[in-house]
Amino acid sequence: MSVVRRAMGMLIHRAYAAIREAGAITPDSPAGHEFRRMGDGVKIAFPPGAIFGERWIEIGDHTLIGERVSISCGMMPGPDLGPDAILRIGRSCSIGRGSHIVAHQSIEIGDDVFTGPYVYITDQNHVYDDPDVPIGRQWPRNTPVSIGAGSWLGAGAIILPGTRLGRQCVVAGGAVVRGEFPDHSVVAGVPAKVVRNYDPELGWHAPGMHSLAADRQATAL
């Protein structure tokens, strides 16, 4: 019986591996042709999450998108969102499984951006301006998002509308990010704040260390 079970297990795993390979979305697959641009070597793993608005999505060369990742433009399939790309993912990126990238106006993800699993990125937020109207029925507000090249987004991070993340930034797992952050920032917390910066003289340091070092030097003089 154990021999039969092993043989069946091997067949099932081989069959599933073949299904995953056949079901992946690549530039050569029929689903890949729906995208505005899908670069060489791009792969969206099977099974994918919800994907729609492909004609407004550009994905750079050699980017890998994990299983069950949802990438979409607009609230639902069908509407005309204009002539330009709305969601741009750079080259050589890696988007972790279960993540969601939901674009309505503009999301720019630079080259070599890596994310952990279950990251959420959106450029749209619900509003609550009218206290008498259910929040879900009020017209949402869009603000562009950009994530600088070389950045890393930890598992479960949430990138909210209006975020402008510089190059080579680190977002801690579970952080809720909104606002502008300079190059070489480490941001963490809810809401996220800068907890470390990089300076050629000081290396990675807590905010304010540069001015503290300058004050000490001035005092010594």
TrEMBL record:
Coiled-coil annotated spans: none
Alphabetized InterPro entries for the sequence: Hexapep, Hexapeptide_acetyltransf, Trimer_LpxA-like_sf
Alphabetic keyword roster: Acyltransferase, Transferase
Top class in the EC scheme: transferase
E.C. code: 2.3.1.-
Tagged with keyword Ribosomal protein: no
GO MF annotation list: acyltransferase activity
Similarity comment: Belongs to the transferase hexapeptide repeat family.
Protein name: Acyltransferase
Lineage: Bacteria, Bacillati, Actinomycetota, Actinomycetes, Streptosporangiales
